[in-house]
């Protein structure tokens, strides 16, 4: 079993750190990256501060196979991601002919001026390749192992789906879960730890849920070995039965 | 104007990185920390891997005035935060008499066994002080500048509110926003950049919104100087009027 490539996500934007904007990209990317076998190993949310962006990009691109960034590639003064990525890679930040042509045609169709602010969205690090934006034209880009995408979820998702087929993924991470109302973590902990010990390659987790009408715990087994995940899920169900409760497959509705 | 203290949040848990769980703590803490003048400057989401937790805690506690952690303090095998924090600080991880007494009484009232798994929730780094948990008794704790809280949002929020009055905050971050349907970032970018240049101490942001029935942009001014925030908001409204649109105070509904 070869090692799966790993991913890190950088969410760039003061608006997430201030609480103004609720991030909606982490869960989408976490799920999709797991599906294509490039599991997300770390996320950082960082501010629109050039040195922070540059240093963080240069740190994480050494440690992970892929780095995905969201945010900061629009036309306004606080959109500094592309320029900072260029500085991180030590390459010029310059107008990209294909991106300029795409945007010039787009604004001509719209009857809007292709002004300096909008030309900024076609200004990217030298050597980068474009990531198509089927929603609003202004592209993302890939340089080295860093994939730079928009922050607006609908645009980010479209960019990711144009990017994904070209990424060399690994084995998909699969998961099985089982839950039971009335289950208490303190009662299952010992048995669950023993299951984890028998399946060291899997990620076995225990997640209590609190609903107005019901409380209980979901147990989850994850990993790239589907047969081991099935076997662990069967043991988790047996553990719940041994505590006198009825296990229900899947997550709590 | 003295510098505000700074905060970093560590969200600890494989379940967030896999997409299984949607984090609901970042926005709450970002907002509350801004209100008490301890603005959040970075967030990291990291897995339940001891070396990662230990190294990350030791890195960020040097760089920020306060570190808040969420997740990993329950009774199961994947709840390793407290032990890792003890190792990060180089102190023993041991039963805390007050926490043991609280939990022993709680489980006696419940008629549940106070078993080894549950005693784990009273095992914390030597020298830590407890953070009360008014929801489910098992406490969080503070050691040095690191505040260790539960991952379940309702419990985390209750812990934060017991902790907050004892934190020495700074000036509250205040914010004013103005928006207009039909506004385009490419048209306002130059004028907004000029406003940012006139108010360098403020954080001026531009956030497009896309609704089924309306599109536009929200402009936001944030900072600790309320008068400057008001003045910048007035300039943002004038900028929108200059583009032939009617500014509306506040965020888009």
Strand order of the largest sheet of chain A: 2-1-3-8-7-6
| Distance between the first and last residues' Cα of chain A | 34 Å
**Assembly of the depicted chains:** homodimer
CATH C-level label of the largest domain in chain A: Alpha Beta
Return the average pLDDT of chain A rounded to an integer: 96
**What gross morphology of chain A would you assign?**
elongated
Summed up, the domain count of chain A is 2
Strand content of chain A: 15-25%
Extract low-pLDDT stretches of chain A.
none
Our count of helices of chain A gives 9
How many beta strands in the DSSP annotation of chain A?
A: 12
Question: Topology as H/E string of chain A?
Answer: EHHEHEHEHHEEEEHEHEEHE
CATH superfamily of the largest domain in chain A: MoaB/Mog-like domain
Which features characterize this protein?
homodimer; 253 residues; alpha/beta; Molybdenum Cofactor Biosythetic Enzyme, Chain A; Alpha-Beta Plaits; 2 domains; 6-stranded mixed sheet; 4-stranded antiparallel sheet; 9 helices; 12 strands; Competence/damage-inducible protein A (chains A, B)
Short description:
Chains A, B: It comes from Roseomonas elaeocarpi. With 253 residues, chain A is α/β, with parallel strands linked by helices. Chain A is built from 9 helices and 12 strands.
